[in-house]
Amino acid sequence: MKLHWSPRSPFVRKVMIVLHETGQTDAVELVRTPVAMAEPNLGLIPDNPLIKLPTLVLEDGYSLFDSRVICEYLAARAPDGQGQALFPVDPQQRTRVLRQQALGDGFMDALLLFRQERNKTEEKQTVAWLKAFALKTDSTLDFLQNHVAEIETVGFDMGAITIGCALSYLDYRFPELNWRRRAPGLASWHADVFVSRASVAATEPAETP
């Protein structure tokens, strides 16, 4: 398989963590594929018309996107039932995991747009958008802090992975926000459970272009 990949994408990191957790890193060739909102990578179009990462190309040339679909595919093909730890079979547990994954994915989407707007020159920024993204960031952190017990009482599943990737992206791109002050319980979980995981350490964002 071939994975269109970037060392700093939080959505790619989700996929990489799943590969490490399920022992499938050797099954995938990583292809460095730069993408940018203002500079679409035309070479990615044959595999993904949305020109987005991650994109997984299977052995027969069939491509999968986005991270949610890719992660579930990799979990399903994992040996020895390892994927069930990421996506539980029990319907109630599975719904909880998918809900947390959706929250983490939505958080990362908002943060990517937040960063895009902040990177504009001041005269081109839309103040209302910056305020809206800041509000979404604060409200999501408050929600996660208020529901941290739900995250703490379950295993290292797909919901926990996605939320952890979102928080680590906050560290990487928004260090000045000091989110731990707002969500101390969440910060403890992130440090003690997420960051300490071997698969997380192996997928730290790189500074390469």
TrEMBL record:
Keyword check for Ligase, yes or no. no
Could you tell me which SUPFAM superfamilies the record lists for this protein?
GST C-terminal domain-like, Thioredoxin-like
Annotated keywords: Transferase
The UniProt transmembrane annotation reads: none
**Pfam families the record matches:** GST_N_3 (PF13417)
From the UniProt record, which GO molecular function terms apply?
Answer: transferase activity
* Start and end residues of each GST N-terminal domain: 1-82
Q: Give the InterPro entries listed for this entry.
A: Glutathione-S-Trfase_C_sf, Glutathione_S-Trfase_N, Thioredoxin-like_sf
Q: What is this protein called?
A: Glutathione S-transferase
The root-end lineage is: Bacteria, Pseudomonadati, Pseudomonadota, Betaproteobacteria, Burkholderiales
